[in-house]
Amino acid sequence: MSSVDWQDVEAVLAAVLGLPATERCARITQLCGDRQELRAEVDSLISAHERAGSFLDVNTQIDRNGPTLSLEGKQFGPYRLLGILGVGGMGTVYLAERSDGRFEKHVAIKLVPAALHSPELLRRFAHEQQILAALEHPNIGRLFDAGVSSEGVPYFVMEHVQGIPVNQYCDTHRLSITGRLRLFQTLCSVVQYAHQHLVVHRDLKPANILVTSDGVPKLLDFGIAKIVDPWSAADREATRSLMNPMTPNYASPEQVRGETVTTATDIYSLGIVLYELLTGQPPYQVTGRPLDEVIRVICGTEPERPSTLTRRFSREKAQRLHPARELSSDIDAIVAKAMRKEPQQRYASAEELSSDIERSLEGLPVSAHRGTFRYRTGKFMRRHRFGVAAALAVLALLLTFAITMAVQTRRIATERDRANRQAETSKRVSEFMTNMFKVSDPSEARGNTITAREILDQASKNIDTGLAKEPEVQAEMMDVMGNVYRNLGLYSRAHPLLQQSADSRLRLLGPKYPETLQSMNDLAATLDDEGQYAEAEKLQRETLDMRRRLLGPNHLDTLASMTELGNIFREEGRYTEAEKLQREVLDTDRDILGPNHSDTLRAMDHLATTLTELGRYAEAEKLRRETFDLYRQVLGPDHPSTLMSLSNMAGTLEHEGKYAEAEKLYREMLDLHRRVFGPEHPRTLGVMDDLAETLSHEHRFADSEKLRRETLALYRRVLGPEHRDTLISMANLAETLGLEGRYAQAEKLYREILEIQRRVIGPDNPDTATTIYNLAFLATYRGDRDAALTLFREAIDRGLPPEYCLGLEKDPELKSLHSDPRFDALVAHAKERAAGQQQ
To answer: Which pLDDT does position 533 carry in this prediction?
Structure first.
């Protein structure tokens, strides 16, 4: 048959092989017309294809009762065939043993099925022998001998590899992510060796990568491999042939399109193998589909990221695939780069792919990422935490100078230089400011809050002008500054910055962008802190609805918004709604992340707090103990989250009236906090306050007062006299003084608190209203009924939280006011205002 005729055969086979058998005959007739020779050749090849297995795939699971012709017992040279190991379009592989008595040895013998003796297949068979003879590598199945049987059947003798496919090996041995990546790196070195010898495998898949019981991978089946020869026109033409065998699930876009195949083709297949090792399934399912659909899927569809796919797995499947750790964004990027549609966009070599995996395992930046300044800096900071922490203080002092120099540089530079430096300046300013503001956070400042606060205030004044030409960076910095002010308890300063950040991102990026939704989430949390519950709920509902539509109900950002909304419900006193939402979050976290994940444990803590507010103390205590035990097992007894869980459990015991147990826990926590955080850390001071509260409940007022005064002095020195936590500590001391009957001293403290609150957070803030409420109770204790009723009404009008408003009527401490007709009007007014706040 001429070459032109062979091209015609290929064209017909490419058009009909994907069709059902019922449609294939009519299509062949249509394409061949009256060319009987062409029709006979096509029918012959299709018949052979159906007997020997798919021409586009190799089936290693042999049906020994099927129609495959077996040559068991036949002699090929000194070897006798024992049984079939595998059958495919490129040949049949038999297990054989040495039978001439010289020595005992089992081998694998490959031969061309008699039904497929075409010049093209015989050429490929000889080609595979040539390739195997040139490759000597411990991880490649070796070639021992070759020949032709007495019946004229060509064969060659190979090493018999006793192993299982690499994906089955990883699952059977429950290899961790690291173990799978290390095994994959060995495969990369084998492929790199083949490429260095100018061999492209073209059929890399788990079935052709067997792993022995000793854990040694072996690369097999070079039946459709190609020797790279860019100067050979014949080779290039053969590469482009649509009839070249391949495995569709592992084929590259250029393979399915019949284009030139290079080493980049093997890189793509390696990416698919890695994807399957990490997720348990290939990125595409195209087996049995028509060729045009195969091309459309492989060339036009982007696979789902491995980490996104595995988050939806059941806990059992997730543990089977990667019991040691979760997939990282670095691994996602590596897989994506190996599987790029354009060959030139993939890794340049298998060695480069392996090197990127090594960098990921060592915590170094990987080349698959875009290599942004922030990404590389984050990697560096995680490797050198303590050194970076020391450097942050110096960077904070240099901030003002750096911004000034940046502005001066832009003024004196030429237009071209200014344009070139603009992006880099933005990165530098962003990095400096972000790191500086982290130092300002009380949880990290360790006593430097006042100095950091001054730097923060100065930077916030310059944000409108200093970054006016960088609106996206400006919005990011506003969000960072707003959150730091929020962590400092300065909500009136946090609110406008977060509002500007959300408005700017909404205008620049739109409502569907992750950064926009994050700003909205932060703003809603600040509104909650300010006691503006109705506005906070409305904004958080909008954020949650958008995240559900864009990210799905189980995404971590969606769950974070649900958590924040549940907290708002609890602050509003809507405990039943809060409990329902928090249980939904907890169930989802357990299903997706597992029972020991930090998000799951935080969800348990939130639910226990709500149960405490509902008065279901026994249920709350049980959940608190379960949470604490898990924190201690997963994070250790000294981790901050473990200590916070222990503190919450002590609070629940206190609500139950188990003061002795609560006191014991608080004293244990105080020792731990002083050792882990230091004696002046805000968390340590919070435990001191909690312990003092318990002492008050035990009527040990003198001990409580002494501890209250010590705590307040530390708060003033560490956080400053106007910090929210300092004011709370002052209010706690005033409460203790009131319980001791020292009303004048208590009132003096409350008045001092009220003056600061009116100046810093405003007269209509819920915290300010709560202080007025406390003064009203103090007036009640003194027997000053007129002053008490006046102060209660002022507190209600200033925004007293609903739970306080609704508690006036039932509070036994207000019994002296019940007989006053003005009290009934006050209660009605309080209920009206509470209903308005909850709408």
So the answer is: 80
